[in-house]
């Protein structure tokens, strides 16, 4: 009996010694790595422009959740469209020892110095949706096909009004994006490629004459700025003729255009209500599309964009190569930034359920909520 007890005691001690010598998980936190995370305890700083736009909130939430799922710590900050606040946020992220930066710039020119600090410190930088200009500190760029967005907006209106076969003239005005955002220029170029032939032909007429980007841009993509400019244009040029098309580059600008048109006496649903375009397919924009006060928008699934960006973060931190589908378009003045371009999708009253509800980007309840 003593011999059996001795043997059991030896077995227990041996098992305890084996367990004590078993290495811990190298997941970074010494804990369970059952989630498959590969972040290894590293921290990613995510700098977003503003929470005043629904889409940037979605972008930030998607980035944070996907990075955390991989085991990364995430420092997510919004600068509320204040370039100097974003500079301070990036400097603080670097001071705290982040391992990688993801930056959706407000004004990329304002970020040149902190981005240089990142490069000097060996911290890789991934540009998110907005190209970081005049810096060699950026490794990759995740975005949507910005020129393609402009092309899609122009092509939608071209088809809807059958401009190729039109025998009448349509009036239009441009409400383009912010001059400190490279995406805005690319969208403008894509749009003008489609509509310029109709301007030259006389099918499309801009009564204000403000067809250049310099004349039609909207600093910080601001809704109130767009509304005031639209009010001025309507009162100055459209007292005796209706505006037929408002080429708006973003849903927030579209809200401003809508308000200005209503203030000028246009009635939603009436035959002379103008075609109003948009971008981002914000929840409010979708409701407006259903109600008839906005004609279309461009859907940009931020879940996909975040996924591509997260893969870029993984790549720069591990020394591997992420998926890239463009190495030519995005010259930032210092280098051509390897990019992944996600596909934009035009959304209107006829297809919003297929593109937004069936994919669970929004629920029917959200869309129908008052």
TrEMBL record:
Keywords: Signal. It is found in: Cell envelope. Gene3D superfamilies: 3.40.50.2300. NCBIfam families: ChvE. Residues 44-320 form the Periplasmic binding protein domain. It comes from the Bacteria. Pfam families: Peripla_BP_4. This is Sugar ABC transporter substrate-binding protein. Residues 24-51 are annotated as: Disordered. InterPro entries: Bact_Solute-Bind_Prot2 (IPR050555), ChvE-like (IPR049784), Peripla_BP_I (IPR028082), SBP_2_dom (IPR025997). It comes from Ohessyouella blattaphilus. The keyword Signal applies. PROSITE patterns: PROKAR_LIPOPROTEIN. Its main location: other. Residues 33-42 have a biased composition (Gly residues).
């Amino acid at each position: 009996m003593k011999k059996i007890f001795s043997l059991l005691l030896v077995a227990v001690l041996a098992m305890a010694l084996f367990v004590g010598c078993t290495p811990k998980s190298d997941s970074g936190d010494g804990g369970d790595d059952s989630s498959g995370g590969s972040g290894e305890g590293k921290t990613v700083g995510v700098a977003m422009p503003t929470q005043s736009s629904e889409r940037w909130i979605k972008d930030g939430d998607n980035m944070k959740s996907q990075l955390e799922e991989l085991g990364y710590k995430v420092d997510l900050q919004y600068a509320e469209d204040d370039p100097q606040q974003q500079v301070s946020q990036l400097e603080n992220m670097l001071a705290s020892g982040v391992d990688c930066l993801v930056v959706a710039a407000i004004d990329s020119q304002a970020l040149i110095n902190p981005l240089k600090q990142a490069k000097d410190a060996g911290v890789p930088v991934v540009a998110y949706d907005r190209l970081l200009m005049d810096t060699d500190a950026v490794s990759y760029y995740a975005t949507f096909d910005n020129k393609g967005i402009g092309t899609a907006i122009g092509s939608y209106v071209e088809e809807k009004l059958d401009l190729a076969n039109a025998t009448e003239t349509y009036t239009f005005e441009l409400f383009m994006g912010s001059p400190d955002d490279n995406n805005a220029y690319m969208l403008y170029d894509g749009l003008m490629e489609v509509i310029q032939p109709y301007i030259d032909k006389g099918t499309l007429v801009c009564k204000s004459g403000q067809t250049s980007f310099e004349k039609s841009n909207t600093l910080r993509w601001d809704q109130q700025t767009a509304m005031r400019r639209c009010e001025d244009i309507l009162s100055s040029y459209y007292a005796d003729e209706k505006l037929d098309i408002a080429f708006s580059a973003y849903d927030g600008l579209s809200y401003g255009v809508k308000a200005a048109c209503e203030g000028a006496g246009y009635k939603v649903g009436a035959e002379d209500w103008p075609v109003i375009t948009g971008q981002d397919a914000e929840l409010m924009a979708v409701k407006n599309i259903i109600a008839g006060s906005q004609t279309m928008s461009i859907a940009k699934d931020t879940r996909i964009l975040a996924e591509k960006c997260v893969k870029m973060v993984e790549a720069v931190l591990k020394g591997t190569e992420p998926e890239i589908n463009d190495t030519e378009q995005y010259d930032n003045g210092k280098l051509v930034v390897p990019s992944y371009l996600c596909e934009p999708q035009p959304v209107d009253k006829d297809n919003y359920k297929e593109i937004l509800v069936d994919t669970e980007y929004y629920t029917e309840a959200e869309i129908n909520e008052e």
